[in-house]
Amino acid sequence: MAITAPPVLSEGRERALLWLLALTQFTVIMDFMVMMPLGPQIMHAFAIGPAGFATAVSVYSWCAGLSGLFAATYIDRFDRKRLLLAVYALFALSNLGCGLAGNFHWLLLARAFAGITGGVLGAIVMAIVGDVIPERRRGTATGVVMTSFSMAAIAGVPVGVVLGAQFGWQTPFYLLVMLSLLIWLAAARLVPSLRTHLAKRPTPLAEVLPDLAALLRKPAHLRAFALTGMMMISAMLVIPFISPVLVGNHGVAPQAISWIYLAGGAATLFTSRTIGRLSDRYGKHKVFRYVALFSMLPLLFITHLPTLPLLALIAFFPFFMVSISGRNIPLQALMTTVPDPAKRGAFLSVNSAIQSIGTGLGAWFGGLMLSSGPGGEIIGYGTNGWCAVALTLLGIVWIHRVTKVAMPVAADKPVPDVLHS
Predict the structure, then answer these.
(1) Residue 208: its pLDDT value, please?
(2) How far apart are CA 386 and CA 378, in angstroms?
């Protein structure tokens, strides 16, 4: 089959594609995020402590990391659309397995399978964005796709928490299965065939591992991967334990957690695209530095939280969510510019693996630094906050070292801006 250039999409088709990719990411992020506010219920259902719950969170991330790393050996060998549909179908099955898990060991196995599939989907989505959207508009496009985080916090997590409280912790996973089926059907119709990256002859299987090793040896790639790891560990030292701390230390009712996430997610829905546009206008490095610097204050506040009424917590949480999700927008847009376009899928697969491994490390180390008090309260959360801030500072200093691979790159042809609202 002849290899053709990426399809030129109409304004409406391009916007629909980006929102479809955002919905795809929404289900992946909800699958991961909903575990955290359901933490108190899962800990009670399976009689586990903070360390056991951290294991349930991190097993997803470890498997997602290994899966993403392995995906680097094959992601650029297939049509992006076909690969997206195949992996997304397996992702839906993994959520069905989570809902049917009858004990903690089966839950861990199901979460591992969810990680294997979910860890690849993020790389496929960003590879599609990199193939279709010119570099000068990728910050804006990434902002659209990153609204998936907002949608997960606004709709996915609150609905999941309410359903979990009313009908059992398994219910959100059944909801994800139904949503994934609908999105899969839409993707089969809307996502175009993307085969331009196949113009180069596929690497023989005997050279796949040496090729992966070569990708991992490039200094520009290693500097980018290091920054991704820092940011994910920084966030995950804090995020998985917000709900257990609010419930155990501050007496917040599990059902009320949904209102806190709803407020935070609503704020990011309005800021994600704005931060993406600012990244295109002022530079991805500069916007990352400012947002990451601001994020240190909410990180410290939430890990040294005084006793506050629920309304005050709801008012504060948008600052936390906007800053943590906001620093990822210029970072992810920057990552699409680092590699050779022919290796973009492989690079983003490894980057997705680093994200997942960083997520697992952050959750695991964060759990190890915490302990349960005699009254069920969680002790040591402040230390997690200071470690998260230290890694954020290191990332702010490090980002100037993250640049694209030195090679001649043809300029993008003029393309009208169709992403403005």
Answers:
(1) 65
(2) 16
Report the C-alpha gap between 98 and 402 in whole angstroms: 38
Q: Which residues contact 401 (CB under 8 A, 6 or more apart)?
A: 223
Residues 157-211: tens digit of each pLDDT:
777 777 877 787 888 889 999 999 999 999 888 887 777 766 666 566 566 677 7
Burial 262-286 (b: 16+ CB within 10 A, else e): bbbbbbbbebbbebbbbbbeeebee
Contacts (Cβ under 8 Å, ≥6 apart) of 28? 91, 118, 121, 122, 148
CATH classification code of 11-194+206-401: 1.20.1250.20
Q: How many CB atoms lie within 10 A of CB 327?
A: 26
Domain locations in the chain as residue ranges = 11-194+206-401
Q: Write the pLDDT tens digit of every residue in 231-261.
A: 999 998 998 888 888 888 888 887 788 788 8
Structure tokens at 372: 């349960």
Taking a C-beta distance cutoff of 8 angstroms, is the pair 197, 131 a contact?
yes
